[in-house]
């Protein structure tokens, strides 16, 4: 019995600060902006950040210019290119409260999870996976685990922005199906609570004081599946418009290269000039001269010494021109056939479309956005530099045309009919390339709705002011709260994206002796931070219209929609009073960390 007791004592000692206050240890493995935002979500802007010990494992060299969290203050950084038992022991994974595996490699994350289990069998595990179909298998191997896809979490926000709608978020809780909608699109008796006031283009006001001021609301889906209104509206607007004549003209334009076209035009001009000289020298009409010129150029003409000197000179020059024209015609035919086949293969010869959505980048998020738009009945045209991109196979199965090329080039955007599309969604992983594609799209169509994926929020604000591109999204920013909540073992019911904000719907249990125990329900809500949705006594059903004068008792369950910082504060008030734990004798003190300012 001595060994297990010693292990438990050592584990407890790792969760302490030098002043004896409990402190949970979390290990995060990543190399992209998702790791950065998850660390930021864990730390937040609340004093609770000092109660968490965070260790970040990153590759030895930074793989991209985007931040990955290694420069954030107050965290321990371990540099390692392999996630194995040795690396996890260096990170003091034994006794940690949770591990987040955030690499964009499903198999690699699975291998790292198996290695982590060797170090700490009872670990809380959060795994990032694109193929969420593996979730059940992961849970069988790791019972205390959560499998999340950042692309699946963020895709609805991009879809909604492209269609000019609110995010098609819906969830079921307490016997009700709730969904996000515009207040004008739902009946007054279906509104559960106001979420945000988005009528000011410069700023989205979330969870306003006056619930009636919110134009974006949570509503109950009474008698119809959530999301069907959006699908029906978009299906009615999406119409495929085929223009065979325009398609033929575009095919002719792509038949030959520009250099060959210029060469043919110059040679024909020379032949025409010589034809005029021939008509003057032979004293024949222009029609006869045209006939004789073509015959001489293409087939040659028998020599005739009886002709005049000028006529003989023109005949010789025409024969020389014919020697160049015949192989040039052959080159045009061969080059045109090759170019036409390549254009058809890469999607550059497509029928003109109108009212569709162009999605640039078929990576994780682009693939999800394309699939969801297709589910809503919206016509989609995809663009990617790589014909074998992650989502190319799905695009072929769905019948979505794929233009292979650089979206920063105007020719590529025109091939996708950007001039007549309803929205351009640019979601590649390169901020600079995304911005160039967006600006070129606006050059083609100055009224184009552009949805831009940008990591840096400050950069997005500058882009909005300078170019009028006001819809920007960060996949990592939208997904990070769900990953952080899963790591903290909090059940996030739904994530609601509003502009650049991400609201969380979750349930909070009130512990005995907590700060909320004995206070009225009115103490739960905070303007711009927390909104109470429902309240339930132990063993009773949810009350969706509770009396705010009702006193909270231990065991009550509070369903709230909140921003991350507000949720952190509410969880502290609902938590049981902390007990100081004395570390075992001989346990070395932990180093004091620099805490991030609130």
UniProtKB/TrEMBL annotation:
It holds the Pfam family TrkA_N. Residues 493-576 form the RCK C-terminal domain. PROSITE patterns: RCK_C (PS51202), RCK_N (PS51201). GO terms for biological process: potassium ion transport. Keywords: Membrane, Transmembrane, Transmembrane helix. InterPro entries: NAD(P)-bd_dom_sf (IPR036291), RCK_C (IPR006037), RCK_C_sf (IPR036721), RCK_N (IPR003148), Trk_Ktr_HKT_K-transport (IPR050721). The keyword DNA repair does not apply. Residues 574-598 are annotated as: Disordered. Residues 354-475 form the RCK N-terminal domain. GO terms for molecular function: monoatomic cation transmembrane transporter activity. The chain crosses the membrane at residues 260-279, 316-338. This is Potassium transporter TrkA. It comes from Micromonospora maris.
């Amino acid at each position: 019995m001595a060994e297990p007791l010693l292990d438990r004592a050592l584990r407890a000692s790792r969760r302490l600060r030098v002043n004896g206050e409990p402190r949970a240890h979390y290990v995060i493995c990543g190399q992209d902006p998702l790791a950065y935002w998850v660390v930021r979500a864990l730390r937040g802007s609340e004093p609770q950040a000092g109660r968490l010990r965070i260790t970040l494992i990153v590759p030895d060299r930074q793989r991209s210019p985007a931040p990955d969290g290694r420069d954030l203050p107050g965290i321990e950084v371990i540099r390692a290119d392999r996630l194995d038992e040795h690396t996890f022991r260096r990170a003091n994974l034994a006794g940690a409260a949770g591990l987040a595996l955030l690499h964009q490699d499903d198999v690699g994350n699975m291998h790292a999870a198996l290695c982590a289990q060797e170090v700490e069998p009872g670990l809380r595990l959060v795994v990032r996976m694109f193929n969420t179909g593996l979730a059940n298998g992961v849970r069988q191997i790791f019972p205390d685990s959560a499998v999340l896809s950042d692309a699946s979490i963020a895709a609805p926000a991009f879809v909604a922005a492209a269609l000019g709608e609110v995010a098609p978020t819906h969830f079921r809780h307490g016997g009700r199906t709730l969904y996000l909608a515009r207040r004008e699109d739902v009946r007054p008796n279906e509104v559960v609570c106001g979420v945000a006031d988005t009528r000011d283009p410069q700023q989205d006001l979330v969870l306003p004081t006056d619930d009636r001021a919110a134009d974006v609301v949570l509503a109950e889906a009474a008698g119809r599946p959530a999301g069907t209104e959006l699908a029906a509206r978009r299906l009615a607007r999406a119409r495929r418009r085929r223009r065979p004549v325009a398609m033929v003209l575009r095919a002719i334009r792509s038949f030959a290269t520009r250099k060959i076209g210029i060469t043919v035009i110059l040679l024909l001009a020379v032949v025409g000039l010589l034809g005029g000289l021939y008509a003057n020298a032979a004293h024949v009409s222009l029609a006869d001269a045209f006939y004789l010129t073509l015959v001489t150029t293409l087939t040659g003409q028998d020599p005739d010494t009886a002709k005049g000197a000028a006529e003989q000179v023109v005949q010789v020059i025409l024969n020389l021109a014919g020697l160049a024209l015949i192989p040039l015609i052959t080159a045009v035919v061969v080059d045109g056939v090759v170019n036409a086949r390549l254009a058809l293969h890469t999607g550059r010869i497509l029928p003109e479309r109108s009212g569709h959505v162009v999605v640039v980048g078929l990576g994780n998020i682009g693939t999800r956005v394309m699939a969801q738009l297709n589910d809503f009945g919206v016509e989609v045209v995809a663009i990617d530099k790589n014909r074998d991109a992650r989502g190319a196979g799905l695009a072929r199965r769905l019948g979505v045309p794929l233009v292979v090329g650089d979206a920063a080039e105007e020719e590529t955007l025109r091939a996708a009919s950007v001039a007549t599309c309803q929205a351009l969604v640019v979601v590649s992983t390169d901020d600079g390339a995304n911005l160039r594609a967006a600006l070129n799209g606006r050059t083609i169509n100055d009224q184009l709705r552009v949805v831009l994926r940008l990591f840096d929020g400050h950069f997005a604000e500058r882009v909005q002011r300078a170019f009028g591109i006001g819809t920007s999204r960060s996949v990592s920013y939208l997904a990070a709260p769900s990953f952080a909540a899963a790591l903290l073992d909090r059940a996030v019911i739904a994530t609601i994206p509003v502009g650049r904000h991400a609201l969380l719907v979750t349930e909070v249990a009130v512990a005995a002796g907590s700060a909320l125990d004995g206070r009225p329900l009115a103490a739960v809500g905070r303007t711009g931070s927390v909104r109470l949705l429902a309240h339930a006594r132990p063993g009773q059903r949810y009350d969706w219209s509770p009396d705010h004068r009702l006193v909270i008792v231990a065991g009550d369950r509070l369903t709230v929609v909140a921003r991350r910082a507000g949720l952190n504060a509410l969880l502290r008030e609902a938590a049981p009073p902390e007990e100081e734990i004395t570390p075992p004798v001989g346990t070395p003190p932990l180093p004091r960390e620099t805490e991030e300012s609130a």
